[in-house]
């Protein structure tokens, strides 16, 4: 996937070579990160990670050592600064690969190697002031033998990974120089298969990480950025050529309410919903009702697709596996019916969530009460009204709404080129708890 001027129609090349040429290596890493993060077609708020490997003087021994600078967990690429990257000893991270032994999916205890890894991430930092929590995808970056690595979550590529025929689509869209890595937990369980796939195909310049976006690498900072854009552009073109138009999401099942009626119902349902979830500390709401959101919420396929769950680890973290879809006809049902079905749906969701958490508590050492999440949904889909997200503060609910809007776009793209498949309950449980 070689770079050509003006080749992008679905993505924007924001690189300024004159500016980038005068930057130090670490400044150039921040620059690449910011360019990737400023476009939501490339990655979501708080998602993605970038890294740089460079030889530096060890502040402890005074010797020249290889350091990997990696973005800290949860930091937004768009606003990342130098202080948001952790410097780690590259050789110590790579050495952890040999002692890592993955466990069967059904077994949720942390392995000894995972505990070593968690400790090592904090202890190998070469600067005391470095962020204490490097990205959970640090092994992915460390195991790829290139100076520059990017790992991001573009909707178009996530959609390819969310299709039943994901592997064959990867070849059809990108050709043989794009690797395909099956779903796995972030960390060594994904980093090792990626390294092994690359070792069999060292000319590859990128990889589709099913359920976790894409990765690109290069010894040139600009080329690493451009390879990311090339991947997104190719997927976007492939999807656009197969767009379903009026049949997107199976066509429309319900029509929008007039705005006066909608606002009146919304005011009542927001008060009711807040009363129902406030015991979970969820007191802030965000409402989305733009055309693309309503096309999904009002569609014939919305109940099926919502029940499939999200397909990306990043969306899982921000919006939970599934929203609560409220089966309500805005043209014939009453507000009282909507309130009753919302209450019933919430009760069912809480019961299922408690079962989800109980299944995890069967594995000692994994349940942390101080970090246990609420049992209420974070996203509600109501035909004729829109998408409502809840959170502990306005920022939380806004980011959750944004994440699920991205999940909707992933579903749209996947259904255009295949059959959408979300994360399973077991995969979600494995990811949610073992990341901690």
Radius of gyration, CA atoms, in whole angstroms: 22 Å
Taken in chain order, the helices and strands follow as HHEEEHHHEHHEHEEHHEHHHEHEEHH
What would you call the shape? Answer: globular
Main sheet: strand order: 3-2-1-4-7-6-5
* Uncertain spans: 1-5, 103-117, 122-126, 364-372
Beta-sheet strand percentage? 5-15%
Which helices and strands appear, and what pairs or packs with what?
Blueprint: H1 17-20, H2 25-37, E1 49-57, E2 64-71, E3 85-89, H3 90-95, H4 112-123, H5 138-143, E4 148-152, H6 155-161, H7 166-174, E5 178-181, H8 188-200, E6 206-209, E7 214-218, H9 221-240, H10 259-277, E8 284-288, H11 291-297, H12 302-308, H13 313-319, E9 324-325, H14 335-361, E10 379-382, E11 386-391, H15 394-417, H16 425-434
Parallel strand pairs: 5-6, 9-10
Antiparallel strand pairs: 1-2, 1-4, 2-3, 4-7, 6-7, 8-11, 10-11
Helix pairs in contact: 6-15, 10-14, 13-15
């Amino acid at each position: 996937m070689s770079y050509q001027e003006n080749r992008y129609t679905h993505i924007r090349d924001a690189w300024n070579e004159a500016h980038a040429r005068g930057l130090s290596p670490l400044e150039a890493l921040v620059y690449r990160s910011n360019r990737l993060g400023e476009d939501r077609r490339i990655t979501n708020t708080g998602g993605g990670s970038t890294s740089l490997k460079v030889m530096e003087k060890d502040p402890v021994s005074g010797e020249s050592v290889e350091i990997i600078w990696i973005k800290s967990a949860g930091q937004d690429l768009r606003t990342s600064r130098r202080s948001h990257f952790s410097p780690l000893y590259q050789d110590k991270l790579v050495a952890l690969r040999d002692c890592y032994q993955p466990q069967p999916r059904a077994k949720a205890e942390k392995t000894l190697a995972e505990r070593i890894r968690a400790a090592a991430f904090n202890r190998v930092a070469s600067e005391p002031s470095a962020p204490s929590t490097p990205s959970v995808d640090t092994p992915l970056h460390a195991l790829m033998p290139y100076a520059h690595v990017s790992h991001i979550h573009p909707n178009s590529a996530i959609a390819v990974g969310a299709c039943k025929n994901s592997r064959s689509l990867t070849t059809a869209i990108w050709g043989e120089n794009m690797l395909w890595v099956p779903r796995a937990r972030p960390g060594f369980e994904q980093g090792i298969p990626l390294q092994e796939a690359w070792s069999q195909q060292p000319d590859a310049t990128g990889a589709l990480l099913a359920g976790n976006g894409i990765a690109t690498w290069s010894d040139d900072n600009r080329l690493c950025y451009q390879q990311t854009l090339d991947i997104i552009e190719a997927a976007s073109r492939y999807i656009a050529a197969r767009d379903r138009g009026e049949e997107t999401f199976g066509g429309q099942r319900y029509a929008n309410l007039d705005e006066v009626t909608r606002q009146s119902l919304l005011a009542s349902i927001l008060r009711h919903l807040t009363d129902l979830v406030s015991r979970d500390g969820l007191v802030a709401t965000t409402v989305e009702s733009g055309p693309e959101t309503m096309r999904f919420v009002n569609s014939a396929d919305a109940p099926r697709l919502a029940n499939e769950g999200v397909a990306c680890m990043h969306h899982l973290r921000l919006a939970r596996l599934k929203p609560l879809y409220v089966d309500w006809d805005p043209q014939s049902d009453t507000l009282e019916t909507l309130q009753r079905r919302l209450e019933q749906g919430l009760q069912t969701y809480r019961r299922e969530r408690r079962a989800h958490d109980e299944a995890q508590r069967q594995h000692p050492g994994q349940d942390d009460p101080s970090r246990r999440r609420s049992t209420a949904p974070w996203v509600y889909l109501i035909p004729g009204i829109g998408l409502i997200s809840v959170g502990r503060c306005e920022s939380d609910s806004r980011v959750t709404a944004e994440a699920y809007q991205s999940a909707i776009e992933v579903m749209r793209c996947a259904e255009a080129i295949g059959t959408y498949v979300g994360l399973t309950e077991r995969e979600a449980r494995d990811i949610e708890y073992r990341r901690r």
